């Protein structure tokens, strides 16, 4: 059944008050709900509540138990009949959290109860209007055995606790903020808890708790610190304060995605919460910090202001990702954060936008909303907010954000409400900006120069175009905010004039299919960068020649541009090699020379250089060529790495001659230097066997998980006995630590030479289980997404390996199978042999698939 945006209608009744009573037990949890109904639609006398996999025990209306003459029951709903203007309804159901392998609704993880309700999990807890526009005030009583479940949590403030007899205890929670069901949460179990407190700007004291598996408290302090920094940042930057007297975060091992922003009770995948230097990499730390912030920021962008319907998902997700990106930029390095985020966007969102699953940030129809938690909704959604900020200017954007929060507080809003908060100057300008939410596909902006040596005028001739996407052929131009700066042939900044005003950097909006932007004051042909800072999610195609690009990558004052142009040059060189045309590509020695210059800059930042000198991954390269051949691209990448490694040998020696950065430090300098060392190792690993000793040495010297993983990664490419030795040592040391073992599993699944054989063996390992999403992703997700050479093997073996797993996984956890299958989305870009294998594999999975989730993704992938 397809749900359409235009079909939205408000529910016939409101449920202003909800009381829930949980009597927890693994196989038969009893849930009693008491709902206050208030008629909204005058003609209504019935209400259809959502419910799935529930055992209905009883229904009472206005105090009287009623029979089936007063309700209709189906597999997915309970319709109450003959209702008046108001009604008090009491419903009792039983559910079995222990058998819940889909991890939606109430389930058990590691012997603890927890919930996941977004998007439609609450209907597996009890019958309710399980939709985001039904806001209700919740009072929740939770009762469980004292032994084994000492900690009881739900949303809001704890108002009562006590003994319930027979070895059981209870707690009552009141959440004063009306909320939709998807923000409901409940937790019960034995945890190690750490506590802290925070005082809001207006003086409210908030008790903070982070609850983790027993024995793991030491790994929870970083998250607690990140939480406090997030709370402060949201006050400073967006004037948003927290609004309850308690805030809790709980980590669970079995979780379908990263984390969840339930009101006052965030639940996290433990992989995104637990971190210490021994067991987590710098990248893990940054992810924990980002996700803690993200979920906390939802308290305003998502919870206080929620969604009218799921089509508006981007309203909370895109905006909140934008907010967490800004937070990370302020906490760490702004240019590095931008590079990191754009790399992610290009790696995942651009291909999505270019393939059969393309959809606008605000889709207009869906079958399963779970399938729309996509990179387009999240990451492009964040980029669109960034576009708005650029179009409006920092002050206009800030003022609009305050208006948005004030005008919509306590409501279920739409993207139109969001746009209405900003002053675009005209209705046309607002409509044009709104198109970013409505159109799918990545626009391409081309830039060609016309230079007049006599007058010193240069005109940038710009065009923008978008390819048709499934279901959307007509595309209107979008407002693209540009930051344009020029260099001369020696790399000096040229302050050219536009409309009479000279500037080092011009901020202009390009909002038509074609435009001519004229600048004066350029004696020679200038070298423009038009998308400094990357403030619009577009592809750029310029007429710069190789010499000009070399100047730009070495001298543009914008670090993003230097990084980007350097990456482009290296990619062109690698692709030319893969196609057997090395001569046609840019010369590697000149690229290496330009990159070497980064080490001598006054503003040298090791973390930046680590990224600048690291050539694109094979996955990234696959997208940049129309004849993708993973093995050839890998060989070209290895050659490029060897050249760079040799050219930068002096710089490497200098770095390794210095004392290693403090293993526990998370300062930018320390993180940056570790990243730089890791890149050097990555470059050197391309030398193969002869680098084995160096890499194994690095593995043994490693003072923290970042260094261990960098060395193990290098070894995974070299293969042979050094890799086996390291793996065995790693396993012996970490076999009892699930999060660390996930790394061990994925490192092998990503091994480029023999990943497929390894995966076949790994899934026989006693620690492997498809039931745990982290472990399933560590093996199959890593293989399908991060081992392009083996996944796209020409004989179809990689596709078949994943297909077999998907069939098995779908019966256990459709949310996870429907996500891993997305690695097939680029199948039509490959040669006919690979296409045939991919198609056969997908058809085989489709025939066996049980879930709508998986079927929807495959059908679109095959059809689009
Ligand atoms: N809102 C959740 C994601 C829920 C996914 C449901 N399929 C996490 C987040 O984006 O913050
Ligand atoms: Zn989110």
Write up this protein.
With 864 residues, the chain is α+β, with helices and mostly antiparallel strands. It has five domains: 1-161, tricorn interacting facor f3 domain (Immunoglobulin-like, Sandwich), CATH 2.60.40.1730; 191-299, Zincin-like (2-Layer Sandwich), CATH 3.30.2010.30; 310-438, Neutral Protease, domain 2 (Orthogonal Bundle), CATH 1.10.390; 453-462 and 464-543, Immunoglobulin-like (Sandwich); 735-864, Zincin-like fold, CATH 1.25.50.10. Helix content is 40%, strand content 22%. The strands form ten sheets. It has an eight-stranded mixed beta sheet with strand order 6-5-9-3-2-12-15-14, with no helix packed on it. A five-stranded mixed beta sheet has the order 17-18-19-21-20, with helices on one face. Bound molecules: (3S)-3,7-diaminoheptanoic acid and zinc ion. Zinc ion binds next to helix 3.
